[in-house]
From TrEMBL, chains A, B, C:
Occurrences of domain Cupin type-1 (ranges): 38-257, 328-475
Annotated InterPro entries: 11S_seedstore_CS, 11S_seedstore_pln, Cupin_1, RmlC-like_jellyroll, RmlC_Cupin_sf, Seed_Storage-Functional
Function: Seed storage protein.
Protein name per its UniProtKB record: Cupin type-1 domain-containing protein
Coiled coil: none
Gene Ontology molecular function: nutrient reservoir activity
Pfam families for this protein: Cupin_1
Compositionally biased residues, Low complexity: 118-130
Keyword Signal recorded: yes
PROSITE patterns: 11S_SEED_STORAGE, PROKAR_LIPOPROTEIN
Sequence segments annotated as region (Disordered): 107-138, 185-235, 253-315
Length: 496, 496, 496
């Protein structure tokens, strides 16, 4: 047996191996939720921009593949503008810190905000005629914001501290008709790739494609005809020639060239020198600041807004898709759905509180546990859930269908824990500080079943026989303890 | 070439082979319905419990993969209690034999059944105060029972004969957000695995996982912190420490230990010594027995109940999710939707007759063919269907889209036949005994198209040209024979 | 090392290779939309029939796998009859040329068309009693026709020119519960396979199946019991024995034999000698011809029909599924939804204009661009789209989420271009002739976002900062050019 033959053999083996390994990740996908061990996840990749930072979790993490979602954490500096982008997957954004404004571009909706003709910008630029655009929406810390699939939106930090937001992209949502790869389309600028892991796969895909036995493709027209202009940007407009853009938009060639954005080093979050001067019916910023400080005032205003909104909804006509509410504050203490003064509080935003979520098929929960407070064992009936720790520290326990503890660890600020549908989970805040987290859920009417309520709903005799308990013990089990799932341990014994 | 090298080579080959074979089953999945041959399936696995038997079909059977479902047959002995369990997949249960009671634990629903304080249990146990729990539901032979995803339920046989039930788990249902592996979560007890085939895959998955190139996982906290207590049970409560359970439920340590159920050898169906004494508005058991014997009496009562229910539904408010009807008897002769006194009868339960099925996206059909009776060729327009033979014997023919006979065999009691969507199927009872079967369908408004009705709906000239028939033959084809799909062969020639 | 061993080794390698290669296409599927290059596709396969031609696109084309659809182009000669067939995937048909009639067989619907008893067929055949059948529907060039999943339909060309139609089979539609392989079930005749590529996979599947470790299958009954009759046809009725068919349909053995259609060489489109004489309330064919010629007359009639329909819908009762409208003409100039007298016009059929599309979850768009006319850059928010060129020539540009131009080529009559969800696309007609195309969309309320409208909806300052534009340039960008997406380049510079 000659050396060359052996080499050939080795080569073949390598080829087969790589072909097989390529499919291994797919094997994971189809049994994607057979997780015998769940890990707390921190971001795997970061993109630095001129005025901010984008961090992403690798969507190939087994936990994220099971949940069928991708996550992005964005930090936008003061005066930073996150460029308009859209995604085939619906997005749910939670504002961890700061405040800002955002604008959606809803197709078929009018430009309802008109700027007066006489206004002067601070930068000396001059508007020959008044600008008009679609509605601008303010948001602040604790808000959940819903971005439908395919709709471009931009975000601007008009506060004094960094704006920090965590976004869920529900890639397995029925609205996403592409594969489960997370995709962000930037309209302009020169953004860097946010999920490089999926891009590697794409290259793999590319190599394979050439070995694909194509049928009768019309090959004679396939060579790309436009080569005079290199594809320099990464925005969707950079894919068109400036000549074509100039023709289509009826602009000068220079404007068209800038639309393609070549050689822009600012990446997806750019600095607005002097700040963005955007019209807004809320009045001066100073007023706003005051309100922020006098929180109760703010609360009242929100309630008022709420009242108006519910009145509007009675009418049934006024809330079109163009003026739909897309945000809801779920961190406000006064809004809590569950509350135990010793253990903590829970608020939920779902399609009953924020109707637009019906179209996104997503919902969210905000949980704040006080020191040692316990969110007793429960499971999500109809949703996967993603727990992101905002502040503090605590401990999370997750049990799978075989009774195996797949997670039992401390968690801290910035970590993400996936809790698959029906897996039983319990959270407990640490001894020194409380635990604050947001939970994204992949169902707009996500429902939770609490173990203790299940025990209460079950006849005592069934419990006695199921668990081998005496009648007295069953009674103790059903009647002692809190009625709700938020518990503060009575004893001083520690659970760690 | 040295021996060690050859061994290494062989080893490599084996490794590649296993990697490839691992993916082979996935290959089947994606072309999951290219079945050139369908087999009648009998259970592949059995779990013996203290008071019953659980039998499951291997979900990796190509036919079941195509239909995207899993099946379980449970036999519960008299006084047997099937422990509370839930699944992320909705379940449809058909009662083949016997009678029993069951309880669901619906989250957010009140404990509407209250037991008087003075009652004494037969076993000498004593209730210091009255027990209360959610609604208890009776069921009997011929009932279809709908269990929504994520909702725990328990079942108890209060009859004198074994209770036999066949359950469909619709793992490809939109309600199941995990992968297509069937999962049953037991709240308590020490259940054995019901689908060991999927567990092997899990181990395979486990091995692979360690070769997964993890990103920036927070490894320093990942070691499981709680090792003092071994994970002895298989219920979800066994995954929590008894200390944590005691703290959370505010119970004694001994109660908490029993909740974790270590060393329980009774498995998922346990015997209730002396029988379960559960309150029930239906009165004494003797009365019930009488009714069972005087069947017509029973029928009347059901009709009455039916009338009340439809009146209630008119109101539209009273039937909340908490009191929703979850069962319907489809075997009663008086309820038949199709009937031919010589050939047989068919009853259907769908979301129009049992509204809760709308949420499960499932329906069922009960078919009883008399001796030699034929259910003429037809296909399911919008559903896969699973035919389970309850009694008797007969013959089933199934044809695929290429006109190939993929199944043409005798079937007998206990066999399962998968009929994929649009595949054309015909059933015929045997000469000696009739054929009785239940059909589960993966659509809550499953519709059937009958070949003969299609022929009648088609213009005579189109038929003449399509089949090369003379006008006289077309007229014979369209007008002779039954109007309905239940046929008794007029001639004495046998079809076998 | 001996030769035999080496051969064995090679064989093993080949086996592993084939196993691995088999899975490669699946790998493509799961990352199915990572298309770094899109190709214009022409049909890969043709089936010649007695009176027509069926051409199909290979569903394994990466572009079609991404979109999750299959396509068929049928040419039916005058007097040609396309035999009754059905598919588990819903179909949307666009009539490119000619006119015809079609009949659906909707289950549970009555035979509402009755033929008088005295009529004599031209061919000398004689009807002893009047024929009755379900509604017959006329259609003509420019019509979109919706065929629900599982419903058989036949088509007949009663015009003088070939009838040409392109059909979309939405294999990834929720209505299709089988795998993504396109399937066409023919009720009768001896059709040839329309998608041979998927059949090869089936054979691969078959080989593998025998190595599958089956559990407890009831093997002793599995041998096919009926071998006296070979499976000669490819229709679903050919899968049943003629004896069984005779028994079931109560017909003579000769009729039953013809239902099985052995030795029919005519394939799926058969010639009707002397033409089909089908009753139709529209009156004589000559009258119809007249109307066709006086187009405006035809238009009026359609409007009248439209008016009646909307009145009927007010009632809400009359339009049952049995009489539902399933077609709409989208090519008529008078019906255009978008119109620019220099650039072109666009019409859309969706579930708001044709309610049955709600059940199919599909819609369509007809676009006619005049010479040099541009359909400015836009994207489909919530659908994949398939662009099929009917007439003329032009150029299409498609850009993906990374800003890469994945398609920038001339297209011509008969070519198909897949535009995945959110990919940005622009079309332009050629200099010498216009461009006419139909777009199938995989959503019944497909929505489009136009880049220019997005720019207009965005505040000027955001645009200035995003693209590095001066205020004057932004104003030019927002205010110059057409308001709509149909543009005719003002300058004479060519974009090619």
């Amino acid at each position: 047996m000659s050396k060359p033959f052996l080499s050939l053999l080795s080569l073949s083996l390598l080829l087969f191996a790589s072909a097989c390994l390529a499919t291994r990740s797919e094997f994971d996908r189809l049994n994607q939720c057979q997780l015998d061990n769940i890990n707390a996840l921190e971001p795997d990749h970061r993109v630095e921009s001129e005025a901010g930072l984008t961090e992403t979790w690798n969507p190939n993490n087994p936990e994220l593949k099971c949940a069928g979602v991708s996550l992005i954490r964005r930090t936008i500096d003061p005066n930073g503008l996150h460029l308009p982008s859209f995604s085939p997957s619906p997005q749910l954004i939670f504002i961890i810190q700061g405040k800002g404004v955002l604008g959606l571009s809803l197709p078929g909706c009018p430009e309802t905000y008109e700027e007066p003709r006489s206004s002067q910008s601070r930068q000396g630029s001059r508007q020959p005629q008044g600008d008009s655009h679609q509605k601008i929406r303010r948001f602040r810390k604790g808000d959940i914001i819903a971005i439908p699939s395919g709709i471009p939106y931009w975000t601007y930090n008009h506060g004094d501290e960094p704006l920090v937001a965590i976004s869920l992209l529900d890639t397995s949502n029925i609205a996403n008709q592409l594969d489960s790869t997370p995709r962000v389309f930037y309209l302009g600028g020169n953004p860097e790739t946010e999920f490089p892991e999926t891009q590697e796969e794409q290259q793999g895909r590319h190599r394979q494609k050439h070995s694909y036995p194509v049928g009768r493709r019309s090959g004679h027209h396939q060579q790309q005809e436009e080569s005079e202009e290199q594809n320099e940007g990464n925005s969707v407009l950079s894919g068109f020639s400036s000549e074509f853009l100039a023709q289509t938009f009826n602009t000068e060639e220079d404007t068209a060239k800038r639309l393609r954005s070549p050689r822009d080093e600012r990446s997806q979050i750019v600095r607005v020198e002097g700040g963005l001067r955007i019209i807004n019916p809320k009045g001066k910023e100073e007023e706003e600041e005051e309100k922020e400080q006098s929180h109760s005032h703010r609360e009242e205003e929100e309630e008022e807004e709420e009242k108006q909104r519910s009145e509007r909804r009675k009418n049934g006509l006024e809330e079109t898709i163009c003026s739909a509410k897309i945000r809801e504050n779920i961190a406000d203490a006064a809004r809590a759905d569950l509350y135990n003064p010793r253990a903590g509080r829970i608020s939920t935003a779902n399609s009953l509180t924020l109707p637009v979520l019906r179209y996104l098929r997503l919902s969210a929960e905000y949980v704040r546990l006080y020191r040692n407070g316990i969110y007793a064992p429960h499971w999500n009936i109809n949703a996967n859930s993603l727990l992101y720790v905002i502040r503090g520290e605590g401990r999370v326990r997750i049990v799978n269908c075989q009774g195996n503890t797949v997670f039992d660890n401390k968690v801290r600020k910035g970590q993400l824990v996936v809790v698959p549908q029906n897996f039983v989970v319990a959270e407990q805040a640490g001894e020194e500080e409380g635990l604050e987290y947001v939970v994204f859920k992949t169902n707009d009417r996500a429902a939770v079943s609490h173990v203790q309520q299940v025990l209460r709903a079950t006849p005592a005799e069934v419990l006695a026989n199921a668990f081998g308990l005496r009648q007295r013990q069953v009674t103790e089990l059903k009647l002692s303890g809190n009625r709700g799932p938020l518990v503060h341990p009575q004893s001083q014994s520690q659970s760690h």
